[in-house]
Amino acid sequence: MDHDFCNADGARRLKQRIEEYWRERGYQVDVKLVEAGFVAAMRSARTDVRSDMVNGFPTKRASANDRGGPNPNRRGSMEAA
Fold first, then answer.
1. Would you state the pLDDT for residue 73?
2. Would you say residue 70 has pLDDT above 50?
3. Cα 48-50-54 angle, rounded to 5 deg
4. CA 58/CA 70 separation, integer angstroms
5. Residue-level pLDDT at 76
6. Are 37 and 21 in contact (CB under 8 A)?
């Protein structure tokens, strides 16, 4: 199955897609794969994809070295005039 993201190969592909998506938008996300082992309800082994994102959004911008550009202010912070 090409769209099975619960097996090891699918989870790896999903991890790469998530990291690339947010990297292109200037964010750094930490995505990890966790082997969950055999799950009786699924009748198979499963690999979980976990990240440091909150509600599907990254928590930190990529550093200037990671993106090759200036490091903008973090979301939600304002400069004093």
1. 44
2. no
3. 145
4. 18
5. 45
6. no
Strand ranges for the chain from DSSP E = 27-28, 31-39, 44-51, 60-61
CB 46 within 8 A of CB 22: no
* Adjacent-strand bridge partners of 45: 38
Please report, for the chain, the start and end positions of each structural domain, with discontinuous segments joined by +.
8-62
Handedness of CA 36, 37, 43, 47 (dihedral sign): positive
Q: pLDDT digits over 41-66, tens only?
A: 778 788 889 999 999 999 988 776 55
Can you give the pLDDT at residue 40? 81
Q: Which residues lie closer than 8 Å to 26 by C-beta, 6 or more apart? A: 61, 62, 67, 69, 72
